[in-house]
Amino acid sequence: TESKYHRHGGNLKTRSTELGSAVTGSSLTTVLPASTTVKKSIVLSSESRKELAKQAKATKEERRAQIDGRHRYLISRLADGIDLSEQQVEETIISDDKFQLIEQFFAPSGLKKLLFFYQDVLQQKLNTSSRSDGSTNSLPQKKLFITMGSTEDFTGTCAFFLRTSDEVITASNISQEVNFGMLDCTNGNILQGLEFFLSQIMIPALKSQQNWGAVKEGLKNSQIQEFLYSVDKFVATLSSSRQNIEDKIQLTEVDVDIYVRNLRNPSDYITAG
């Protein structure tokens, strides 16, 4: 019995030694640095986010300091046209990564156009409260942003500024050198938006135009009349194309039997043809 006890005791002692070495051995020293590294990376990630936010805030304030009468003119037109407050438009502009396009538009011989889209944009939002994997949901949200017009799909409203000359744009001449307009293409219906813009805004404005520059006769001039006629014709063609695309062509069934009933031989078919 005693030898049996010692044998079991020896086993217990051996197991205790093995357990002790497992706890105090190299495996523990391997785990601890890994845990420490994870915590350190989280801290660095948080610091990086704070640094990025700090840089973004500094950039916004730097741009805000650059805003002058020219920017105020753009902001007021956008606010009136899109039904946003001037403060909202200003915050959007100074936060936009294409802010430099505005300066390029103001420069002598600069960009001929400056475009803004106001439409639904998918915003990525972290849904940590309902999903343990930290997955994201894409939610549509109205957003105003500067664009070149060639990279984003156009599905909403386009506000545009057009230069009339290559002169440098200043606070004193911007109202004479820059034209503002809007194109409503809700749900991506560009043809309908363009048709409305031309027929309801541009053509009435052209037909009420009194000063045609070097053309002294104005609307009585044959070239001016021909130009207005061509614009009217273009809008009519645009409207027809839009209706065709929307499947508005109505095809009626024709009773062919009426035409072929009396055709008896090849000569009758030749005569009918």
From TrEMBL:
GO BP: any one term: microtubule-based movement
Superkingdom assignment: Eukaryota
Entries under InterPro entries matching the protein: DHC
Listed GO MF terms: dynein intermediate chain binding; dynein light intermediate chain binding
GO CC annotations on file: axonemal dynein complex
Name of protein: DYH5 protein
Native source species: Chaetorhynchus papuensis
Lineage, opening ranks: Eukaryota, Metazoa, Chordata, Craniata, Vertebrata
